[in-house]
């Protein structure tokens, strides 16, 4: 039976933060621990330490989030002892603990963090208990839409103090638009998953969607055939034009210009084609869609890593299952229709639709991990899951960055 994470265990995740133009500007590091009894503080300290060691010393902050900032919620012990936090100040937003008490020692430590160059964030639930104390010392106030009935009034009051406003738990575009009207500058939530249209998109999808989905399936197969890739590419003239543009921009005048798709494929290589095709085909130049694409890439990479730990499971098939598990949200179609258009085989279809077989087990495990709701067997490999997840985020970030640089 599923359960929340017990003391001593934690699930790590990165939640995106965007600005009012849907630009991905920051990520929040989330770790879920079970808060029961006197062991809570030790669990939180342990979870924090493990997460930060992995990020800053094993993977690297830039590999994980690129040039974006990272919001980290720190325990009280780390606030009152600022020397424990050896983070790059320009890249970090420090989230103050919600239950911290504003005594002399705490406020002195907060001043030290601010003077060191950290951006400080506090939740509304903390600030409203002592606004005159906290507002002069912090940079960002975060309001949870689930617990802010007087949102407009609070936003106006906080804005007068000169702090920035972040809204979290946004679930609809209507809520997002309301927050924009109230001068919020940072936004968190699953609202981007429900958005189907974004005003001002410059890239209109006119291509053969079925061919595009088949192209992704072929590109992520174990041994792509150039002739097969070329056949699918010609069915998407816009993507072909973009690939020619990318290869000529990369080569400049140093080499003879490519005159065929075969040459483009050879010059760019499959890794580059994969990254460009994934982001161009799925995001359609819509910034809000890029959050979904990034999440799909993370799932795909995590599925491949989990398959690597298992006997008799094809890592490339696992990757494809992870990638297509979010295609219904990205494409706005039912998962069954998407699978049919992509011509995925029966094994992958059963994994996606019914979580059957070994591939289905992998997908089910990923979904449970994302919700921090794992069974006893999964809890025994939680350390490995956290490590594989962070490595998958770094890989996905590299794919997105590769596309942006092209």
List the helices and strands and how they pair.
Elements (H helix, E strand, L loop, with lengths): L10 E8 L5 E9 L7 H20 L1 H5 L3 E5 L2 H5 L11 E4 L8 H12 L3 E5 H4 L3 H4 L5 E5 L6 H10 L3 E7 L2 H9 L4 E4 L1 H4 L14 H11 L6 H8 L3 H15 L9 H23 L3 H22 L6 H10 L2 H5 L3 H8 L3 H9 L2 H14 L5 H4 L2 H24 L1
Parallel strand pairs: 2-3, 3-4, 4-5, 5-6, 6-7, 7-8
Antiparallel strand pairs: 1-2
Helix pairs in contact: 10-11, 10-13, 10-17, 12-13, 13-14, 13-21, 14-15, 14-19, 14-21, 15-18, 15-19, 18-19
Explained architecture:
By secondary structure, the protein is of the alpha/beta class. Among the domains are: 11-194, Alpha-Beta Barrel (TIM Barrel), CATH 3.20.20.450; 198-275, no CATH class. Helix content is 56%, strand content 12%. It has 21 helices and 8 strands. It has an 8-stranded mixed β-sheet with strand order 1-2-3-4-5-6-7-8. α8 links the parallel β7 (164-170) and β8 (186-189).
Summarize this structure as a short list of keywords or feature phrases.
TIM Barrel, 406 residues, single chain, alpha/beta, globular, eight-stranded mixed sheet
> How much helicity do the residues have?
55-70%
Strand order of the largest sheet: 1-2-3-4-5-6-7-8
- Gross morphology is globular
The average pLDDT is 82
CATH top level assignment of one domain: Alpha Beta
Largest sheet: 8 strands, mixed
CATH H-level superfamily of one domain: EAL domain
The class by helix and strand makeup works out as alpha/beta
CATH architecture identity of one domain: Alpha-Beta Barrel
Number of helices: 21
